[in-house]
Amino acid sequence: MFKAVRISILLFVLFFVAVSTWLTQARSTDWNNSLWVKVYPINGDGSAKSAKYIEDLKLRDFEAIEAFITRETERYSSSVPRPVRVELGQPVREQPPELPGSPNVMSVMWWSLKMRWWASGVTDEQDRIDPDVRIFVRYHAPDSTIMLENSVGLQKGMVGIVNAYASRRQRGTNNVIIAHEFLHTLGATDKYSPYDGHPIGPDGLAEPDRKPLYPQRYAEIMGGRIALAADDSVIPKSLKYAVIGPLTAREINLAD
Hints:
The structure is a single chain. By secondary structure, the chain is an alpha/beta fold. 33% of the residues are buried. It folds into two domains: 33-187, Collagenase (Catalytic Domain) (3-Layer(aba) Sandwich); 190-256, no CATH class. Helix content is 34%, strand content 17%. Strand 4 and strand 5 form a beta hairpin. Strands 2-1-3-5-4 form a five-stranded mixed sheet, with helices on both faces. A two-stranded parallel sheet has the order 6-9. A two-stranded antiparallel sheet has the order 7-8.
């Protein structure tokens, strides 16, 4: 009898979590109200340069993300005047859980659970009200010999981890990556090759009907890069050179 009660309670908790997650995700893409996105800087490499860069960060450094989402949602007839409201949180001193070195289904699921638990716990002291989306940006001192880890955005938990450079020159590129991972939290999928990083046409191209097709002038945000040729592409310098394509718009419920 006691075992049956425990199982019933566990099933109820799991059901409650599943329903709560579904409702949160549904509300995040109904585009009836502004989404509150909070950016939390982290010193990713422990360097003095990254610490100074974080100290000097201002909310205006992320205004381009709001402008990009507003511009692109207006193209798809969103009626919300400010679809995204970005805020800058206080620096987070802890590093997020590391991605598994040799990922498989179970290890990724376990990491996702740890990530969501960590994200909610590490911001408790500064967030009396939880934001809709949490984006943790790990800054690293610019160094051409260092390759940053991949960034990631989770729809379940609506949390993202962005690896970025602590450089004013890289601010625009950093915002492109933040916007990309933010859209992942809303259900958008990658539209680039996992093998070489180049956008996959037609959905990964900003102008799939352009003639000649290359070079493209803009990047589809989930394609991630401006395609200069079939085998050559570059990350845009700012969100002025990025768009939300039709498939991505459908994935985040902006278009039918």
